[in-house]
Amino acid sequence: MSRETIIRRIRQDAEAEVLALMESAQEEAGTARAAAAAEAEQVRERAVIAGKKAVDLEIARIYAQANLDAREILRHAREEMIRECFHAADQELARVRETAAYPAILGRLISNATEQVGGNQVVLSAARRDHALVREYIRARGASSPEIRISGEDVATLGGVIVRSGTGHVAVNNTFEERLGQMRNELVFELARFLSSGSGGA
What we know:
By secondary structure, this protein is an alpha+beta fold. It folds into 2 domains: 1-96; 101-185, hypothetical protein PF0899 fold, CATH 3.30.2320. It has helices spanning 3-96, 102-117, 131-141, 176-197; strands spanning 121-126, 147-154, 160-165, 171-175. It has a 4-stranded mixed beta sheet with strand order 2-1-3-4. The protein is rod-shaped. This is V-type atp synthase subunit e.
């Protein structure tokens, strides 16, 4: 075999090997590119999904916070309205003393408290401006049991009385403020229910 033939054969073999290597490399590169593209797509999809989830979570958080804020605003508004209702009630009670009906109301409060205290003797305490009405009640009542006395105490109240037993061990506070306070929880519940029904139950 001549030198030229050997060189040509080597060149042909080399070219074939190079072609084979190139084809293999291109195939591997194509596979790698496909794998990279697939991985990139997965990464992109995961990013999109993660981003969508993040957006959905943020939207949900915003709505939840807005709902909480709205409820808090409504709660404060209701509390303010309830305070206003009780303030109006206080003002209304303050005017009762100036009405013609007050002596009869005071008499019923005295009778009610006296019955609750019981015993043979009770002591009434009232605002000084009501002492004359209390004395009139005692005079009109006569000598019926129990014996009723009036203390010299000047009770700071919009109206009503405090009745104590003769020993002082039993007392019934029948002032306007105390009776309103006793009804407060029930009134707050009723007002809150009314206000809730008027605002869609939020």
